[in-house]
Design brief:
It is a single chain. It contains three helices and five strands; from the N terminus they run H-H-E-E-E-H-E-E. By secondary structure, it is of the alpha+beta class. It has two domains: 67 residues; 63 residues, Chitinase A, domain 3, CATH 3.10.50. A five-stranded mixed beta sheet has the order 3-2-1-5-4. The protein is elongated and about 65 Å long. GO terms for molecular function: translation elongation factor activity. This is GreA/GreB family elongation factor.
Length: 158
């Protein structure tokens, strides 16, 4: 990665915007349960208040991180379509002939099977490639390769 603002895909932007909305809702709920200093009773109440205050701090940090990432993505502009970069959608053909469309991102979501991180072996191999390029990379099962078929949205996608 370049160290500067990196673009993100439209899908990743939507996911971050949804997470941000959810976090803001959760923050409003948690903040509404906090009591003023004069209302806090026994030690159990105080411990509960401290937990909610810690939860607010965690929510505020994540909200700030997402807002910063979205600002950076806006500064970076759209993901490149001529060369693979962070935020690119890239279709690759594996050595067995199968094709898969992947997103090159910063952080893979646990359940997102189409995301590869830019610092993973495949992600690093793809960065800077153009359609038609063949790249080799290491996997836990050994050395393998892919051919970059296309960059950008797959046909029929918005």
């Amino acid at each position: 990665m370049t160290g500067g603002p990196e673009p993100i895909s439209a899908e990743a932007r939507r996911a971050l915007e949804q997470e941000l909305a959810d976090l803001r809702d959760e923050r409003r709920l948690v903040a509404g349960t906090l009591k003023s200093d004069t209302e806090v009773g026994d030690q159990a109440d105080q411990a509960d208040e401290l937990q909610r205050a810690d939860q607010l701090d965690r929510l505020d940090r994540r909200i700030g991180d997402i807002e910063e990432r979205l600002r950076g993505a806006s500064e970076a502009g759209p993901a490149p379509t001529d060369v693979v970069g962070v935020g690119s959608t890239v279709t690759v053909r594996f050595t067995d002939g199968s094709q898969e469309t992947l997103q090159v991102g910063e952080v893979a979501e646990a359940l997102d099977q189409t995301m590869v991180t830019a610092d993973s072996p495949l992600g690093r191999a793809l960065l800077g490639c153009r359609p038609g390029d063949s790249v080799q990379y290491d996997t836990p099962d050994g050395h393998t390769g892919v051919v970059v078929v296309s960059i950008g949205d797959t046909p029929g996608e918005d």
